[in-house]
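Lab notebook, design round three. We kept the backbone fixed and only want residue identities now. Task for the bench partner: fill in a sequence for the structure below.
Input structure tokens:
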């Protein structure tokens, strides 16, 4: 017999699970609203007598607001306290949701979606920082592997929930569905989430950094999104937006390295192992998960001829795989090296993606469903170990800033990755001509390339399991 003993799983008590449950409600609302409106665009076109291009701003405005809000999450939590920041963000999100349901015109709906996105962008990073602090280094792996399934489920559940709501009620309920969820979160937050005093109550706001980072990200994502839509705005305007956004981001990095104050997002964070490698993995994971959830519905409802509800049902196996994978990871994350889990997950994502490169060649629905199940399992094995590893290496006082940085990269990976894949798809649709369905298969080769890039980065993750009480 070997003298090696298997470490016992860290004990997660009921109080910590209650904390996780309350905090995950905020993440659920924010991430679900990214995709729930996607199936209602035709309904909104009729309701507001608007063009498809105009209605697209209902989704785009929310996404840009989320991207713009995430960088400020760390400063707000340091300045006012994590729990207070999170509770105020939930309250603003609820008010904005109710206003969206009461919108009287397209401009008013877009304006309220911006407010909703600004609040929603704060919820995942502030919630993760609070959870990491409550769990501590020994238990964060188990907890984050369970609650981390929410961002993986949202791209699947959004269209499915949207289709179900529209089948039974009118469009305002797409937004009113947030009200009971948020109300429960606000009622329980003071009872279940430990208070967190402001770390730096007099911390000055990095005004120059905010003026470069948030608008730079928004302009970059806007430019890429408009290029991917097939020139809904003049191509020159979209390309100029991409260039301006890129220059502003470079300027922010230079500012962050030179400033004597605490920057909004500290670029030096990513030079500290394992945050740099974790950042690459999260960017690629966001691009792969959200990119696939962008491409597949277009294919299934176009060449596949499925309804929105049928498409949602066919996409559901990815959510089931993610849920099953998260439960399994929560049992082994404390005794298996992060590199082993992440590389195994990337392998499964690659296997699940390979089938999609053949779209346009009569791929059976059953093969698509099985591939999505495999991809969901793999995605669950990537995100949670990477986040747990990153948070274990961060001092408690730095958790809000680190959570903001990691969530920014994951959000950026999803939004920029989706926009880039949209550009690739548009190019392939033009090149394929009559054989438009095969253009989707061509685009998924790019998704497969992203998984190869993630695998290369993951080889730099620690090859030993985490040390701590569980070890």
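Proposed sequence:
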């Amino acid at each position: 017999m070997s003298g090696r003993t298997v470490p016992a799983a860290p004990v997660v008590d009921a109080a910590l699970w209650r904390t996780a449950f309350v905090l995950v409600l905020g993440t659920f609302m924010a991430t679900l609203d990214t995709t729930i409106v996607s199936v209602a665009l035709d309904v909104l076109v009729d309701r507001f007598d608007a063009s498809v291009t105009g209605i697209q701003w209902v989704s785009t405005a929310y996404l840009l607001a989320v991207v713009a809000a995430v960088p400020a999450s760390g400063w707000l939590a340091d300045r006012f306290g994590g729990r207070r920041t999170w509770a105020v963000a939930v309250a603003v999100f609820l008010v904005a949701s109710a206003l969206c349901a009461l919108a009287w015109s397209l401009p008013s709906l877009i304006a309220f979606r911006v407010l909703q996105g600004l609040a929603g962008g704060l919820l995942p990073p502030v919630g993760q920082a609070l959870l990491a602090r409550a769990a501590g280094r020994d238990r964060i792996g188990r907890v984050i592997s369970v609650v981390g399934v929410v961002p993986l489920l949202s791209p699947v559940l959004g269209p499915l929930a949207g289709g179900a709501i529209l089948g039974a009620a009118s469009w305002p309920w797409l937004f009113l569905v947030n009200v009971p969820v948020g109300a429960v979160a606000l009622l329980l937050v003071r009872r279940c989430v430990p208070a967190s005093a402001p770390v730096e109550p007099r911390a000055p706001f990095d005004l120059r950094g905010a003026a470069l980072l948030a608008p730079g990200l928004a302009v970059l994502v806007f430019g890429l999104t408009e290029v991917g839509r097939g020139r809904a705005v003049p191509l020159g305007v979209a390309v100029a937006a991409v260039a301006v956004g890129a220059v502003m981001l470079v300027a922010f990095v230079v500012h962050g390295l030179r400033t004597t104050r605490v920057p909004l997002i500290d670029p030096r964070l990513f030079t500290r192992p394992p945050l740099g490698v974790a950042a690459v993995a999260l960017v690629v994971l966001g691009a792969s998960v959200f990119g696939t959830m962008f491409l597949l519905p277009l294919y299934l409802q176009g060449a596949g001829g499925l309804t929105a509800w049928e498409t949602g049902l066919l996409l559901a196996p990815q959510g089931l795989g993610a849920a099953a994978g998260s439960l399994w990871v929560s049992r082994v994350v404390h005794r298996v090296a992060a590199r082993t889990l992440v590389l195994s997950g990337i392998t499964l994502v690659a296997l699940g993606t390979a089938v999609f490169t053949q779209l346009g060649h009569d791929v059976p629905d059953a093969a698509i469903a099985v591939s999505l199940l495999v991809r969901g399992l793999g995605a669950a094995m990537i995100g949670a170990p990477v986040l747990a590893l990153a948070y274990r290496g961060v001092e408690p006082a730095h958790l809000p800033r680190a959570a903001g940085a990691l969530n920014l990269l994951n959000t950026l990976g999803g939004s920029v990755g989706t926009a880039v894949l949209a550009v690739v798809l548009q190019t392939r649709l033009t090149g394929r001509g009559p054989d438009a369905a095969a253009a989707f298969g061509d685009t998924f080769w790019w998704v497969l390339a992203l998984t190869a890039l993630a695998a290369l980065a993951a080889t730099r993750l620690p090859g030993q399991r985490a040390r701590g009480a569980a070890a």
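Keep this in mind before ordering anything: The chain has 18 helices and no strands.
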